[in-house]
Structure prediction request, 149 residues.
Amino acid sequence: MIKYTLKCSEDHRFDSWFQSAEAFEKLLSAGLVTCSVCGALGVEKAIMAPQVRTNRHASPPTDDTPREKTGPLSKPASPAEQALSEMRKMVEETSEDVGDNFVSEARAIHEGDAPERPIYGQAKIEDAKELADEGIAVVPLPWGNKRTN
Prediction:
């Protein structure tokens, strides 16, 4: 996994994790990397400073230590992360997770073979593009699979 700091054409900055540098480039070239704040497609890598721990015996973080220095994600560090967290919670509470069956379930709903309802799950980029070409509305969600996070 690799973490990039990204920025959009509106200069919103946000962090995102990708499986690899190649995966980031593939998603970016497919138009599937969008700003987590405004949804803009004009996203690029921002300049990042490496996080290097220089002292193994550094004092433990305090409540006022910036989150990026505390390690694990314990709470949102910015309004954008808070909004993303709330959006994820809303999607998970109001939609059915169909997992790897997303493509077939979306088609079945579109064709009237399954009850209409909001769903989310996993799909390969090529499959999501095929659904869109068929007139089936799909939107990439700006977070990873909870089971593998």
